């Protein structure tokens, strides 16, 4: 009797906690939509087609194209470096590294992933950005620096997630491949990767989401000019930076306020789309 | 037991008798208000003061909501706000607490001492992009243009007085703090920025506008073209507060001591000359 009661108590506790979390999540999304709705209705497609962001001018304009493009380019550029690099580091850690080597590198990586982004941003701002003046670059905070900061921040994340995914693969699978005469590299590259593809994809998507959502670094070293970057040395102002920079000073309930929420909704949308794509790919490719 | 009871009673009486004063608004007025509050708390130890510097518009919006007692503002009310005031049947009164000039700063190494409003406007709207277009003696380098971000009162004043409501070029770099502008101009020889005179340091060079430097008397007399009064707004819908915390605070701010603190914060006192 008592055991049964305990069981009911535990399951209902878990249920209540899970339900609270789900409801909270839905409320969050509802809140985002509710607050951004007026901007989408009033401003309309100008948000996506115009690069003029003058939310407090006499004739206010709310074009976010430059920031959306900035977010995309920054994410794309950083991901293209982080994901392959992270994969190969994970491959090395999984296959070639001896156990003590693995230990050292892993704890190093974990330590690195704990560094607050504001520290990395400030470091780049104070020590790397002044160097750029000698190279005749007109904007000392720019796309390249922002991307460097993002790579620093997300690489440890990618490495530890991908290593975990690879380590979870059954040993016997790899051993049989090696027994058939495949080299270590081929085994990891073809067999382990294939077997852990869903974990790898998840890791990749989480990393990309992290890059998109990262705020502090892009705010500090991105340059803060809402122009579409044409070179690596142009300043960039992604959506997150806009929200962080202006949310504190915005007049509550104004169109400016709603359009900042619209920026948040766009970010949320991008992240949901990415997650869906990863799920689909995972299902198709997994064994 | 009795002691605990008395202790609770004391705590309660302190809590219920302490008065609160909530001040919100302009980042420009913030350093002044900070100095005032330090002194004010010493004079009235039972008053709880909270100060939040977020931007003039935020302060005035808070005054409408009733979430602030005093709104600091570095600009006059906007048309929109005046309209809202009459719609809601509210009446805000302005109190001038000091004056501020917006200084145009460049790097110490840049060989330029004076600029005109017209050229300044062209730089910020993007018609001029290289320093040699300003003056052929200057190097052919791209100008790095800095501005405060859009919610700042300094930005709004600059937009109105210099740009005549034209829009800034997209490559103008909007930054979060005045301090950052100064640091950037100090390290980048081809940068230009505008900041409240209170923030100017030795690290940067202040430009004359039409031959006029933003000195105290030039700002007060209005000779310097980009200057402005700084306000506190209070809600006087039910009449001017004749006694109480708000009244005490305002009286202190306008007193000789209060006005000296305005100067200490780097601005120009409005009274007591």
UniProtKB/TrEMBL annotation, chain B:
Pfam family, one: PBP_like_2
CDD domains cross-referenced by the UniProt entry: PBP2_phosphate_like_1
PBP domain residues: 19-257
Gene3D superfamilies: Periplasmic binding protein-like II (3.40.190.10)
Matching InterPro entries: PBP_domain, Phos-bd, Phosphate_ABC_transporter
Keywords: Phosphate transport, Signal, Transport
Highest taxon of source: Bacteria
Purpose: Involved in the system for phosphate transport across the cytoplasmic membrane.
Similarity comment: family membership: Belongs to the PstS family.
Protein name: Phosphate-binding protein
């Amino acid at each position: 009797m008592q055991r049964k009661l305990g069981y009911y108590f535990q399951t209902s506790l878990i249920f209540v906690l899970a339900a609270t979390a789900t409801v909270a999540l839905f409320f969050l999304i509802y809140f985002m939509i509710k607050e951004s709705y007026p901007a989408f209705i009033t401003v309309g497609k100008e948000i996506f087609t115009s690069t003029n962001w003058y939310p407090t001018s006499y004739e206010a304009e709310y074009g976010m194209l430059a920031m959306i493009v900035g977010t995309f380019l920054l994410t794309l550029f950083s991901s293209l470096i982080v994901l392959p690099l992270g994969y190969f580091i994970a491959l090395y850690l999984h296959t070639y590294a001896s156990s003590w080597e693995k230990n050292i590198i892993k704890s190093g990586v974990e330590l690195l992933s704990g560094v607050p982004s504001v520290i990395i941003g400030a470091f780049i701002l104070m020590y790397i950005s002044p160097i750029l003046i000698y190279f005749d670059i007109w904007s000392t905070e720019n796309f390249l620096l922002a991307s460097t900061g993002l790579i620093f921040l997300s690489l440890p994340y990618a490495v530890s997630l991908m290593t975990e995914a690879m380590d979870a693969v059954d040993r016997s699978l790899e051993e049989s491949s090696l027994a058939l005469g495949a080299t270590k590299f081929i085994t990891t590259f073809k067999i382990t990767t294939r077997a852990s593809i869903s974990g790898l994809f998840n890791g990749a998507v989480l990393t990309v989401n992290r890059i998109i959502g990262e705020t502090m670094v892009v705010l500090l070293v991105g340059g803060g000019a809402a122009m579409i970057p044409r070179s690596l040395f142009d300043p960039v102002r992604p959506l997150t930076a806009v929200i962080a920079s202006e949310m504190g000073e915005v007049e509550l309930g104004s169109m400016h306020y709603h359009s900042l929420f619209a920026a948040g909704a766009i970010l949320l949308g991008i992240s949901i789309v990415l997650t869906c794509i990863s799920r689909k790919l995972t299902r198709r490719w997994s064994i | 037991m009795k002691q605990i009871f008395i202790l609770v009673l004391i705590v309660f009486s302190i809590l219920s008798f302490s008065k609160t004063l909530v001040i919100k608004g302009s980042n420009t007025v913030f350093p002044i208000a900070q100095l005032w509050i330090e002194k004010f708390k010493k004079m009235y130890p039972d008053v709880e003061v909270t100060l939040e510097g977020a931007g003039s518009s935020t302060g005035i919006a808070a005054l409408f909501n009733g979430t602030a007692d005093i709104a600091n503002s570095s600009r006059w009310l906007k048309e929109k706000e005046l309209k809202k005031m009459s719609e809601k049947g509210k009446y805000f009164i302005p109190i001038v607490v000091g004056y501020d000039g917006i200084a145009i700063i460049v790097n110490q190494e840049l060989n330029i001492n004076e600029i005109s409003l017209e050229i300044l406007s062209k730089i910020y709207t993007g018609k001029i992009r290289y320093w040699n277009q300003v003056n052929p003696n200057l190097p052919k380098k791209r100008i790095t243009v800095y501005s405060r971000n859009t919610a700042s009162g300094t930005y709004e004043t600059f937009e109105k007085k210099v740009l005549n409501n034209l829009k800034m070029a997209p490559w103008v770099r909007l930054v979060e703090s005045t301090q950052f502008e100064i640091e950037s101009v100090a390290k980048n020889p081809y940068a230009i920025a505008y900041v409240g005179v209170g923030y100017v340091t030795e690290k940067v060079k202040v430009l004359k506008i039409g031959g006029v430097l933003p000195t105290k008397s030039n700002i007060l007399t209005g000779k310097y073209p980009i200057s402005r009064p700084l306000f506190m707004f209070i809600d006087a819908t039910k009449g001017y507060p004749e006694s109480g915390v708000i009244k005490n605070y305002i009286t202190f701010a306008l007193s000789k001591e209060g006005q000296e603190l305005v100067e200490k914060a780097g601005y120009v006192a409005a009274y007591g000359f």
